[in-house]
Amino acid sequence: MVKLKYKLVPNGSAEGKMPLNVALVNLKDVKVCGLTPEKACAAIAKSLDGPTAINIFDMEAVTTTSDGIMVDSAIVAMAASDRGKIHREYGFVPMAEIEYDDELIAIEPHLKQWDTNYKGRRLYRGPDVADKKIPVHNVAISGRACNNNSGTEMMDLVTMGEVLMPYIGQKEIMADGEVAIGLTGEIISVAIGMTVKEKFGRVFSTRRYRAGDTAHGSKEMAKTLKAEIPCIAASKRVHAGYIIKALQAGMVPGRDIGCAPAVLAIAKIMGFPINVENITEMAQAELDSIGFTADWMREKAEKHLTAEEVLARADEIVPGIVGMEVCKASELAEIRYAEIP
Question: For residue 330, what are the CA distances in angstroms to 7, 8, 173?
Answer without folding.
Answer: 9, 10, 7
